[in-house]
Design a protein that fits this description.
The chain is mostly helical. It is built from 19 helices and two strands. The chain has two domains: about 450 residues, Up-down Bundle (Growth Hormone, Chain: A); about 80 residues, no CATH class.
Length: about 600
């Protein structure tokens, strides 16, 4: 009876951790990180144009590379989280790095010794020698930045991208850990709602940064405008640590990377073996596991879990003697989970490239009438409408459409539109957004020419910047459908111990998309100005042809949609595996830890 009471108390203590009470701390941490960092992303195009005197195409390439690095690092952070440190430690690491960046700003010596990003960027605005001399762009010859000045700028951008690798891949998965309860019949509905509103909170953060941080930068100057994100990042780290005693901290799968390598090597070593029938007893699985046979997808990896000879392949405890020749069904399915989503994941690359064209639309807005209700808005603030439409879509879908779909159709409560259809619809909208951008830019350019502004790149045409809203609205809808859908898809297809990798994979797609975007901008700029012609992406928008560039993006997006339809059809069902035996793996790990502890005590 004593043991049972102790067990009950222990269980009670565990159940007090996690839950909805932890979400404000986690979401606030991510939100303030977004406001701080993306407040810099949004207006950086103007900073590079007017302070560093880059032309629009070069500035866009620098930004695309920065965005790419910011999205690549979370993928490595995800692997650290799920295979080594755990999600709490990686978020803490990312937040502390950011916090140290802020604290180091107190002393120039500390800044120079620790090379910390946000303060480096602030210093480029604070120290006149850190950037080229000020001049009137398009009115007089402007000095180009020196190599040292460019290096100083790039170091700050690179270090901020490094810090993003800690927070971004883990916050969403860490939040899901707090509320995920498979025994709750409403668990799937709760998780879907969480994914939607989490992305909305991120969108609202970006919207706030696009309006208020940008406004501060425009009105108060770059020194104050870059100092505000430093304070916000400090606040972000403090909020996260305040809730640390309440968090559920899922242990990392220490064998994750090794397991992936073992599956590949074992499958290659056994490549000459014929695949046994599905009901064969030669498939190797852990005792107590529900994963007794592999799925039919990516069947070439199934050879990694074939037992050739039980006496030679297994030891007295039923474990593989040579783990590089024989793996469990679960290990094989973990590897296959990643391999299977790669074709659908690849559609995220072009999609990311399409929806991250804020830089050029900001340059367009700078040549248009930006007055809204007698208030002149900063050129970059019009991109905030992307996230307004995202917020409205998620609110309408989650609170109005989902209940109606469940009520009047046979769709199970909380399921709504299928993940594949949501992603596909978002990709369709990503084709329409640049197509509308073609029409708007053509109208703006024609107006500039008719008003005699073809040789005046700073001239403001008699056309409201509100014309940019339709393309931004469609981009927001596309993001709300495809981005949330893809994250949800990866999360549903991976085991819980790989949740951060699911989110990291999404960011990896965005990073690759930004890298591709920088390459396309480079190619388009170089090829279209051959023979002394004016580049499509000229610094003088009125002489260039940004409408042709948007048309190219629309065509690429259409090809991407067709590729998605093919990949989605080939993927098949999303419900091949309904349980990943999380408890079985955890129990085995605990047993191994006990055996190790006992051996150490015996040796003593």
């Amino acid at each position: 009876m004593e043991i049972s009471k102790d067990q009950d108390k222990a269980t009670e203590k565990v159940t007090k951790k996690g839950g909805f009470k932890t979400l404000p701390f986690i979401i606030a941490n991510e939100s303030f990180e977004k406001v701080a960092n993306l407040g810099l992303h949004v207006n950086m195009i103007l900073y590079l144009l007017y302070e560093y005197h880059f032309d629009p195409s070069t500035a866009a390439i620098i930004l695309f590379l920065w965005f790419a690095a910011s999205n690549f690092m979370p993928f490595f952070g995800a692997f650290l989280s799920d295979s080594c440190l755990g999600r709490f430690r990686v978020i803490a690491w990312g937040s502390v790095v950011a916090l140290l960046i802020c604290i180091s700003g107190i002393s120039l010596l500390l800044v120079l010794s620790s090379l910390q990003g946000l303060v480096f960027l602030w210093l480029t605005a604070f120290i006149p020698q850190a950037r080229p001399p000020h001049c009137k762009l398009h009115e007089e010859p402007c000095a180009s930045p020196t190599g040292l000045q460019i290096l100083f700028l790039c170091c700050s951008l690179a270090l901020m991208a490094f810090g993003a690798g800690g927070v971004r891949p883990c916050s969403l998965a860490f939040g899901a850990d707090q509320i995920n309860n498979p025994e709750n019949p409403q668990n799937e509905r709760i998780l879907k709602s969480f994914f939607n509103w989490y992305y909305v909170s991120v969108g609202l953060s970006i919207m706030i940064s696009m309006v208020f941080i940008v406004y501060i930068q425009v009105k108060a100057g770059w020194v104050v405008g870059f100092a505000v994100p430093v304070g916000l990042m400090s606040f972000s780290a403090i909020i996260f640590f305040l809730g640390s005693f309440m968090y559920i901290k899922v242990k990392p799968n220490k064998s994750l990377l090794t397991g992936f390598a073992q599956v590949i090597v074992a499958a290659w070593r056994n490549r000459h073996l014929p695949l046994p029938p599905k009901n064969s007893d030669t498939w190797f699985s852990q005792d107590g596991s529900n994963l007794l046979k592999p799925t039919d997808k990516a069947r070439f990896l199934n050879k990694a879990c074939i037992i050739k000879n039980r006496e030679k392949d297994l030891d007295s405890n039923g474990m593989p003697i040579e783990p590089w020749s024989l793996c469990t069904v679960r290990k094989v399915e973990e590897m296959k989970a990643v391999v299977k989503v790669l074709p659908i994941w690849s559609t995220n690359i072009i999609f990311a490239m399409i929806i991250n064209q804020h830089s050029f639309s900001a340059v367009q807005a700078g040549t248009m009438d930006r007055h809204v209700f007698n208030l002149e808005m900063p050129a970059t603030s019009f991109s905030a409408f992307i996230f307004i439409s995202l917020f409205l879509w998620v609110a309408i879908y989650d609170r109005i459409l989902l209940p109606l779909i469940s009520k009047y159709t046979k769709v199970e409560q909380g399921r709504g539109i299928t993940l594949k259809k949501r992603i596909g619809t978002g990709l369709l909208l990503s084709c329409l957004a640049p197509a509308i951008a073609v029409l708007v830019e053509r109208k703006r350019r024609d107006a500039a020419i008719s008003e005699g502004l073809i040789n005046n790149p700073k001239g403001v045409v008699n056309m409201s910047a509100m014309w940019l809203l339709p393309q931004h609205g469609l981009t927001g809808l596309a993001e709300g459908l495809t981005c949330v859908g893809q994250i949800e898809l990866y999360y549903s297809q991976f085991p819980k111990t790989m949740s951060s990798i699911a989110v990291g994979l999404f960011y990896l797609g965005f990073g690759t998309g930004n890298l591709l975007a920088s390459l396309i901008v480079k190619i388009v700029n170089d090829e279209t100005k051959r023979g002394g012609k004016v580049s499509w992406l000229s610094s003088n928008l009125n002489q260039g042809h940004y409408d042709y560039y948007y048309a190219l993006l629309s065509i690429l997006s259409l090809v991407n949609l067709l590729w998605y339809i093919l990949c989605s059809s080939a993927y098949g069902s999303l419900e091949d595996i309904t349980t990943w035996d999380e408890d079985v793996g955890r129990e085995l790990e605990q047993e191994k830890e006990k055996e190790t502890t006992q051996k150490e005590e015996e040796n003593k």
